[in-house]
UniProtKB/TrEMBL annotation:
<dbReference type="GO" id="GO:0007064">
    <property type="term" value="P:mitotic sister chromatid cohesion"/>
</dbReference>
<keyword id="KW-0539">Nucleus</keyword>
<protein>
    <recommendedName>
        <fullName>Sister chromatid cohesion protein</fullName>
    </recommendedName>
</protein>
<feature type="region of interest" description="Disordered">
    <location>
        <begin position="1249"/>
        <end position="1377"/>
    </location>
</feature>
<dbReference type="InterPro" id="IPR011989">
    <property type="entry name" value="ARM-like"/>
</dbReference>
<feature type="compositionally biased region" description="Polar residues">
    <location>
        <begin position="1355"/>
        <end position="1366"/>
    </location>
</feature>
<dbReference type="GO" id="GO:0051301">
    <property type="term" value="P:cell division"/>
</dbReference>
<feature type="compositionally biased region" description="Acidic residues">
    <location>
        <begin position="1312"/>
        <end position="1321"/>
    </location>
</feature>
<dbReference type="GO" id="GO:0006281">
    <property type="term" value="P:DNA repair"/>
</dbReference>
<feature type="compositionally biased region" description="Basic residues">
    <location>
        <begin position="1367"/>
        <end position="1377"/>
    </location>
</feature>
<dbReference type="InterPro" id="IPR039776">
    <property type="entry name" value="Pds5"/>
</dbReference>
<feature type="compositionally biased region" description="Basic and acidic residues">
    <location>
        <begin position="1322"/>
        <end position="1334"/>
    </location>
</feature>
<keyword id="KW-0132">Cell division</keyword>
<feature type="compositionally biased region" description="Polar residues">
    <location>
        <begin position="1249"/>
        <end position="1285"/>
    </location>
</feature>
<dbReference type="GO" id="GO:0000785">
    <property type="term" value="C:chromatin"/>
</dbReference>
<keyword id="KW-0498">Mitosis</keyword>
<dbReference type="Pfam" id="PF20168">
    <property type="entry name" value="PDS5"/>
</dbReference>
Amino acid sequence: MWIRSGDDVIPNFGHDFLGFMANAGIVEEFGVVRGDFEMANRRAHHDLVTIVYPPGCREVSEDLGPDEMIRRLKTLAHTFQTLSQAEDESTYADYTPLAIHLADDSYLNNSSRDVQLLVACCIADILRIFAPEAPYKDTKQIKTIFYFLIKQLGGLRDPKDPAFKRYFYLLENLAYVKSFNMCFDLEDCSEIFCALFQLMFKIVNGEHSGKVKSFMLDVLTPLITEADFVSNELLDIILINIVDPQKSQQKNAYSLAKDLVVKTSATLEPYIQQFFNQVLILGKVDQKLQISRKVYDLIYELNHICPRILLTVLPQLEFKLKSTEEVDRMGSVALLARMFSEVNSNLATNHRQLWLAFLGRYNDISVAIRIKCVQYTMHFLLNHPELIGDIKDTLELRQHDPEENVRYEVVMAIVTTAKRDFDVVSRSEELLNFVKERTLDKRFKIRKEAISGLAMIYRKHLSNPQNVPEATKNAVTWIKDKILHGYYMQGMEDRLLVERLLNTCLVPFNMDTTERMKKLFLLFATIDENACKAFIEIQKNQFVVRKCVSELVALHRLPPSEKRDREIKIKIQATAKHLPEPVKATEFIRKLSAHLLTDKVMLANMEKITDGVLSCSECMATVNQVLKKLGSPIMTNLYYGTVKQLLERISSVMVDDVAIRELAGLVQEALNAGDILEELGLDSSRAGERGLRLLMVLSFVFAPHYMYTDVLNKIVGLLKTPADFVAPLALSVLTYIGKHKPLGDDFPSILQTLTPICKDFVNNGTPKQAKQSIKCLFMNATETQDAVFTEILEIIKTNLDPAKGDQYRTAIVALGHVAFHLPDKFPIQIKNLVSRKIVKELLIQDRTEVSSQGKLKSLEFVGYDRVDREFQVHVDGSLAWCDEEDLPLETRCKMEGMKMMARWLIGLKDDKDDDKTNSVTISAHKTFRILNAFVSNKGDLREEGKPSPAERAWFRLAAGCAILKICEQKGVGDKYTLDQFYTLSTLFTDPIPQVRERILIKLHKGLGRGIPNKCLPLDFMGLYALAGLDTDKKLLHMARQYMTIDIGKRKDYVKSLMMSGAADKFSNQIHRIMPDYMIVFAIPLLTHYHGFPVYDDEEALKKLQSALWFIMEPLMTKNDNFSFGFYKTLIEKIKNHSDARNADDEATNYKLWSMCDLAMGILISKTSNYELKEFPADLEIPRLFYTPPDDPNFVNVLNYLPADMMAKIPKKSSMINYIPTVSAQAVMVKKDKGGASVNNATTAGTSSSAINVVTENPLPSSDNDANGTTESQTIYDPDPSQESNGRVPRKRGRPPGSTKVAAASPVTAEDTHEEEDEAGREEEKGQKDDEKADPIPAKRARSTRAGGTKEKDNTPVQEEPATTSGRPRRAAAAVKK
């Protein structure tokens, strides 16, 4: 009802509407209080107004029933729909009371949804027909109406609603005339708009048609574009819908918001820019706004939706990139990385300064930011080729990042890029080089990804070698090398990875046999020498593992017994060593063993796999059958994974008998310059040699696959090829085949063809051909061996004539190998040939005229370090080194003669502790003496100056290598004396670097063979200390690497003894195996070093200190079982001994003891854990190198180092009870002035605890006058006058200088021994001849001091056997005086 009061028309608000308004918060919000409405109701009873209805419409009042009201409202709504918009304000003026009447709360709050909807439609039409002026003038009423309309628009939520059409009409009507624009005149219009926008984003869904969404957009757009101001709250409502999680969870709201932003971008731009300016620059963040927490996501989305909006915003991000807060930098980096890397993004080009600032974050101090930058590298490489240059520059730095995760991401970025788009990486050799460098990373996970990535690239190249970029073709030349170089890494994981990649990528096992062999041939023919050695090592290691597993499997066929179970346990531990984490692997191999005992089928399959006779396809099928019985192939099934790793190592999926036939044919074709060279792009000068080497390697591992007539005929046919390199390699193949099974047993016809060819090689071939011919016939000839080698020996005798030229050298080599392989068949003949032809006519004689250089007059052998430069190029211009091929024939023959003597002596080996015969002992002594003479005389045996400097260097080297080779052999190698050992050590400080390098290589090889009894004894490990004196960084690094490997091998052997339970059996031999004992042998070697003249030479001591640390570092820092107490006790015991070579020479003993003090100082200063652990065995000091004190209680408590070199005791090392602080120099000065001397303690109870010495101005170097020193103050608890049984320095000042050992006299032909031709000559006469005609005169021979005890007086020393090794098997060498 409406009432008139004067000219005012006042609505009658009911109580129901008041309740609605109160519940909606509108009453209080708009300042409308309940009293106002109640007063209006009281006034409504006065004057009533007349409400005019359109024609055909009946009166609508709140008194009507619901159905009737709905019918009348429908009619009214339909009528309003038909009315057009008013032409002027008076057109529909009569309907103004009706409009106000319909806005009564009884209708707006009617309980019927239909009534409310029809009223909303009527009001919308009223607004339409009255536009642009609405009949509603009261602002409060207008607010109420628009909140009502917003509420009704919520009905659009469900398009399936029967009333949806009316809701749609309402939306369309409001959009058509922009009805909500009326709210602009309201003060709080933004609140209405916020409610409307929230509703629209809430109700829009996928079931809405395009028209609905379009009208929604039409309703919202004018409210932004025509507004005078857009509030942050409204921005928040709009923009929050374009970022996650709303973006992904409410995709239709996102679409509506995106379209709205696009349509209103011009209006929104300043408001958005202002918002980002507040947040990014000023740092003012309104926490009430949701978008304040999504700033970077918002920028990213806006850049997608309408980049123009961000033209002034993006440069502001540069400030965030340089922020001091890591969170800000991370957010901006993550944002820009996404924006820059997007497909078709021009951001990096348009904002170059911002791009450069972003690149600077690759060097950010934060690891997380650097990782984030690198992770997006893949997208840059894939989507923006124009940016690759900048990316490569940044990656070059990051691939060397100190953080491993950054380096890992660099590799992953490049490798993942290659997987997605191979061409991107293949076109850039720099990117491939980055991956190449990471193959040597210290972390396995990085090496793994780098090597695997390169392998994948190589495999793609193999699949299509023609259509690849030039960069890839260049990279392929080194990719396969780098993959195989990974086998040199120490970790077992690296080796397993390379083995797997070899079979899957380098030579894919799933190719057919012909193609697979072509790829194998291509690989082996094009890799470098180091990669070639790695390939060979792979085959050898897999062969060893296969053999180990075969032995383990064979034990399961034995009947149950305690012995079998014990052997199985030992084999399980041995097998586990070939897998990563042996302790864990042991558990699963033990489980596999139990499985084999119960599953006979699986046992049979394992036997087939380890036999090595299956074809590749059969082997794969058998492996799969075994794997099926191990459970599901999932990550958590560690049993499956461990056995799979083992099967990968022992299965043969690359080579079988068919493959060998194919490969032999390819090699034969390559040697004949066939089409295969062009097809594979191989070098004709290299392919044949590499192919033969490949056949040789495979014959060692897969000999059964060669046991076919056609294959053997092909290999024998290769011997007719004229090239010199062919025959030795082909003969090596036949040798390995014969080692598996002699040809004389199964293929006598082939042996019959082979024998005359080998004889011809011995007669007319090269030394290599003769050598391999002897070995081949020895392995393959069975019944005809005696006859064949009798003929060969006659050929050798005939050719042992210097006039024969090259045949002479070949005969020497052949004789050496006959003597080595057949020592018992021709003992007398060979011995006579050695004596007459090799020693007398070859080694002793110098047929060359005196060289133009003459003698090296200014060169002293003990002064190598001072004449190194002179020695390299001598004053007369002669080179001190040359290639072996450039040496004269006579020189090369002499070198072969030394090797021949070594082989002959090794052939006379005696595996027993006692001598086999006296003749063997005599031969060993003579051989060692003549070889030692070459070393001691600087390579010039007769000292006549005939050999050139280069020849002398080669002679020294050849003699040293021969000595090392002999010393590897148990029996004859034990006849080596101490003096000869010291003479040999001079080669490790030889002035020629090539000599030092090659003797070092020979030492490493000798120490690594057949630990512990088929290698050089532990004594020779001490020689590494002299290598530590080298000034050549390359040689020093090589020596450290070799030493570390040798130490590791011995540690592994000791560990295997412990694990196998055999430690007790070898407990008395542990000091001859443990590498920790190498310091025992290093100390005397450094004591006798020619550059250590006196014990207090500080310059020399500093060098020797670095040499000691060189060998002690890997023992102390890389030893999990390091025991400070062990080393402390060991050094103390050494210091209580004297030098065995010069036991009575105080100068030598002082040097020895000063070396002990140096070692103790290093031990104290470099140790962090001073715990005195117990060690299992007694510490034995070898008598060969040391003479024990007369008094068993003797303790040497003096310190023989200069005062400034004495070790300082750390504060935390209070448990150390022996650090000598008494200066030996101070003691000598004190005694010289008549004071009581400080004696070395004679009892264990009077060690350092009994001494407290304070020295002032310690005695300077003994070269100075002692009178100028201050007397040392000495306090000694025991009676100073008491006589001590220990050695006390007797002289003041420096002890006597080192005794210079006289050089050996020239050896003449008259000095040589004559061996009798007759086999029955008496041995006693041979001994007399030996004593009479010794190559080294007796007065100059170096003898070894016996290792026995020494009496106080001048009692003669008891003669005992003395050798260089602590091995229990070594016999004593006779001591001559």
